[in-house]
């Protein structure tokens, strides 16, 4: 059965980012639990930032799981990514992600690589960048596997990466790896921009699917845009997906309204099929 989650950002530099709750983990966890979410997804400044949180206590008090941890702070705070022309910066990006894999694994949660994948450029042409990304996914995937978890790779829309923008490209990339511990993240906002058909894109991801960012066409809460969720729920059910549908949406008009709208939509989309 698909489970519900809601995002919480603790990164000052991502204050305007698409996260439902910002800054206050304790209040976010309380609201998430009161509304009936199964889990929270945490976007923290670093691995140390995750370990400094009273996460174990909050999860236990509120009966929540940790759905996933983001790694994008490496990009937004330190400007790191896996396709940087500078080998030292690429290595630092990998260390940053590996540490977050370890911190998440302590709670059974996978880490997500989204913006940290970077992009190809004149300095690092397409084939070279894809090779760098594959090599990092091999190493980091194996590392996640050794910690009893998986690594989640997120294709992004064309304005945020030029590496993999569709689920088909993501699935091909994962098929080319020898590690079996990398999964795809289907973010419905990115898919709405890039896929010919969102349901077909989810079928392209198929067995590789490991996480879903549940959001509407305009990055607002599910139900506040023009996404057609019927075919999406049917495709997810067809692929046997039983991971999280995690709300990664702007807090418009505010966090609580966005979270409540999301859980209402989650119930009508996933609890009636
Ligand atoms: C990360 O999950 C993502 O989807 C990015 O577009 C957010 O900035
Ligand atoms: Mn996303």
Notes on the structure:
Helix content is 44%, strand content 15%. It contains 11 helices and 9 strands. The model has no long low-confidence stretch (mean pLDDT 98). It is globular and about 45 Å long. The protein has helices at 25-35, 47-51, 55-62, 73-76, 87-105, 126-146, 167-175, 188-194, 198-205, 229-239, 255-270; strands at 3-9, 21-22, 39-43, 65-70, 111-113, 151-153, 182-187, 209-214, 244-247. The relative contact order is 0.14. The chain has one domain: TIM Barrel (Alpha-Beta Barrel). The protein is α/β, with parallel strands linked by helices. It has an 8-stranded parallel barrel with strand order 1-3-4-5-6-7-8-9, surrounded by 6 helices. Helix 1 packs parallel to helix 3 (55-62). Strand 6 (151-153), helix 7 and strand 7 (182-187) form a beta-alpha-beta unit. The protein binds L-Erythrulose and manganese (II) ion.
């Amino acid at each position: 059965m698909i489970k519900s989650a809601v995002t919480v950002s603790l990164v000052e530099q991502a204050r305007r980012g698409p996260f439902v709750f910002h800054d206050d983990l304790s209040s976010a966890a309380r609201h998430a639990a009161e509304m009936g979410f199964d889990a929270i997804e945490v976007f923290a400044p670093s691995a140390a930032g995750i370990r400094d949180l009273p996460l174990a206590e909050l999860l236990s008090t509120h009966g929540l799981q940790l759905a996933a941890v983001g790694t994008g702070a490496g990009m937004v705070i330190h400007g790191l990514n896996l396709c940087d022309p500078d080998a030292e910066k690429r290595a630092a990006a990998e260390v940053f992600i590996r540490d977050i894999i370890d911190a998440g694994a302590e709670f059974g949660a996978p880490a997500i690589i989204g913006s940290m994948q970077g992009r190809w450029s004149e300095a690092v042409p397409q084939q070279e960048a894809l090779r760098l990304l594959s090599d990092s996914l091999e190493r980091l995937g194996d590392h996640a596997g050794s910690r009893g978890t998986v690594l989640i790779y997120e294709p992004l829309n064309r304005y945020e990466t030029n590496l993999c923008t569709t689920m088909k490209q993501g699935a091909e990339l994962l098929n080319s790896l020898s590690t079996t511990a990398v999964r795809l993240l289907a973010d419905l906002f990115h898919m709405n921009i890039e896929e010919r058909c969102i349901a077909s894109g989810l079928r392209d991801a198929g067995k590789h699917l490991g996480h879903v960012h549940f959001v509407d066409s305009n990055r607002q809460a599910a139900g506040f845009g023009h996404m057609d969720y019927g075919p999406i729920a049917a495709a997810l059910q067809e692929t046997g997906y039983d991971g999280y549908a995690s709300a990664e949406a702007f807090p418009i008009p505010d966090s609580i309204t966005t979270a409540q709208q999301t859980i209402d939509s989650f119930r009508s989309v996933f609890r009636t099929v």
